[in-house]
Amino acid sequence: MKTQKTPLYLGLDASTQSLKALIIDAALNVQSEFVVNFDRDLPQFATQGGVHRHDDKLTVTAPPLMWVAALDRLFDGMRAEEFPFQHITALSGSGQQHGSVYLAHGTEGKLRDLSATEPLHTQLETIFALDASPVWMDSSTTAQCRALETALGGAQAVADLTGSRAYERFTGNQIAKLHQTQPERYAQSERIALVSSFMAGLLTGTPAPIDFSDGSGMNLLDIRQREWVATALTACAPDLASRLGTPVPSHSCVGTMAPWFVQRYGFSKSCRVIAFSGDNPNSLAGLRLQEAGDIAVSLGTSDTVFGSLRDPRPSGQEGHVFVNPIDPEGYMAMICFKNGSLTRERVRDRHAGGSWTDFGDAFARTPPGNHGRIGMFFLEPEITPPVLNTGVFRFDERDRPVAEFDRDGDVRAVVESQFLSMRLHGERLGLQPRRLLATGGASQDPVMLRGLADVFGVPVAVIDQRDSAALGAAYRALHGYRCYAADRFIPFADILPSSPATHVAAEPDPEAHRIYNTMLKRVARLESQLCIKG
Ligand code: XUL
Q1: Which residues are paired to 13 by β-bridges?
Q2: Ligand 1, residues 194, 196, 280, 384: which to mutate, most atoms within 8 A of Cβ?
Q3: pLDDT of 380 higher than 90
């Protein structure tokens, strides 16, 4: 590897399936990337897709020691390629959200007394009070969710305080379940970390604080006051505050690289570690969505909409508000839709012979508004809006249910209803688009771009940003370091100008947009009739 002398900034991404490192220079150029895939490279942990699914079908966990072994493997691989660790000025990271790591009494001593001749994972085998960390795919805590909502005065009350109603994967509910089902393990846990703060703590050699943004995915943090909600902590488990530590702003410097990394890999002693955060907050940083109104629409297996906002309106029904990872005064909203690309593909396969071109032709044969017809395709149980009964729900121009549309009608209906639903639920949380950035597999498709521009009434740019979480972590390393060096918060935009996506791929048609404004109210009404019916 060519020795790179300029300061480097490293972003780590501990995602569900892999651990990645992405390195940028001060001019924001990506210098190199390295990856360890859990299933392939660490077969001794026998994960599938990085996790273990349990027999009850609801419990999903990952072995936390695997994440330690992955860090060994990643840095060993970089050393084998003569990576110039000494030039890394600062490092930050990203973790899959919500997952929790239970650290036994004595962990701090073990982190302090590491021998540089041994890998981390053989020395840290015994730090875990629980060797199966619940991750975001776990949905086994419905009872704990209902109990939290009862304790705090209902779903809307939980959302008003913590940014989201009680969700099964959110960490407070996971902690409550551990305390109820394995009290001895809870008692052994001196610290409870998120995946993000756990990884940061490995690097600094001392348990690292949880940052405000990832901390917002726990149902425990007051997103306005930025402190733990005492009643939520008490409702989940006793003596929780001391186990969680004090949360910090996401741009905080949480330490320097521990001596083990300095001796073993040649990191500089002064290399700063900036607080790690969740993958979605890091993606927001990676896409540089710092302007309120810049909204990303990620069109993937599931669709996700997220963006920065100043005046959030958390919902007791759907979506999430997190503290913003790059603006300590701001917020980010995020909404997940389970019926995304796979659902569009199923309509394409049925009506367009599997061809996106034919799908596009069918879309173009019907006018915006589909002659007043609305069709909702919930081929998977939907998260937003919560609709458990799967199926296609078609309505005529007077909102009367109908069994079928013609094929062109179905094609237009799936696109329009999905994007209208994104707009509806985004607006409910306070997202006011100024422009959209489309990312993900389907984001280059002209049909999708036309539909998004007309439904939202704003220009749409396409941004092909793979590894946005790792890139966001590298950006935050640079930004956090500058804040640390200046001893004050510097606006993210002063260091990283707004999103690089400047090429507008679709402009809205005002006439079509007017039609969608009217349809939006009908979609809201029709959706509410379908919600949570089993
Ligand atoms: C967000 C969520 C997932 C995880 C894993 O709430 O559960 O996106 O962060 O990627």
Answers
A1: 20, 94
A2: 280
A3: no
Same domain, 254 and 367: no
Instruction: Find the 136 Cα to ligand 1 centroid distance in Å.
Output: 6
Quick check: is 489 in a domain?
A: no
Per-residue pLDDT of 19-38, as tens digits, reads 999 999 999 999 999 999 99
What pLDDT score does 1 carry? 55
Q: How far is the CA of 403 from the centre of ligand 1 (A)?
A: 35
pLDDT averaged over the chain? 95
Nearest CA to ligand 1 atom 1: 97
Q: Are residues 259 and 406 in the same domain?
A: no
Whether 163 has a pLDDT exceeding 60, the answer reads yes
- Together in a domain, 56 and 205: yes
Provide the pLDDT for residue 121.
98
pLDDT digits (tens, 9 = 90+) for 75-88: 999 999 999 999 99
**Cα 20 to ligand 1 centre (Å):** 17
Q: For residue 152, what are the CA distances in angstroms to 149, 158, 161, 181?
A: 5, 6, 9, 22
Give the residue whose CA is nearest to atom 6 of ligand 1. 97
503 pLDDT more than 90: no
Residue 497 lies in a domain: no
For residue 188, the tally of other CB atoms under 10 A from its CB is 16
Domain that holds residue 428: 341-462+505-533
Q: CA 79, CA 442: separation in Å to the nearest integer?
A: 37
With 0-12 / 13-18 / 19 or more C-beta atoms within 10 angstroms meaning exposed / middle / buried, residue 196 is: buried
How many whole angstroms from 15 Cα to the centroid of ligand 1?
9
CB 159 within 8 A of CB 79: no
User: Does one domain contain both 512 and 411?
Assistant: yes
CA 7–ligand 1 middle distance (angstroms): 31
Specify the residue with its C-alpha closest to ligand 1, atom 7. Answer: 136
Would 333 be classed as within a structural domain? no
Taking alpha carbons only, the member of 362, 457, 461, 465 closest to residue 415 is 362
Across 421-434, b (16+ Cβ under 10 Å) vs e yields bbbbbbebbbbebe
Ligand 1 pocket (Cβ < 6 Å) reads: 16, 96-98, 136, 169, 217, 278-280
Ligand 1 pocket test, candidate residues 17, 60, 98, most atoms within 8 A of CB: 98
Distance 372 CA to ligand 1 centre (A): 36
The number of domains in the chain is 2
CATH number for the domain harbouring residue 345: 3.30.420.40
Residues written for the chain: 534
Top mutation candidate among 336, 383, 467 for ligand 1, by most atoms within 8 Å of CB: 336
Greater model confidence, 440 or 62: 62
Determine the distance separating the centroid of ligand 1 and the alpha carbon of 95, expressed in angstroms.
Answer: 9
Highest mean pLDDT among 79-93, 280-294, 376-390, 497-511: 79-93
Q: Of 486 and 318, which is predicted with more confidence? A: 486
Q: Are residues 178 and 258 in the same domain?
A: yes
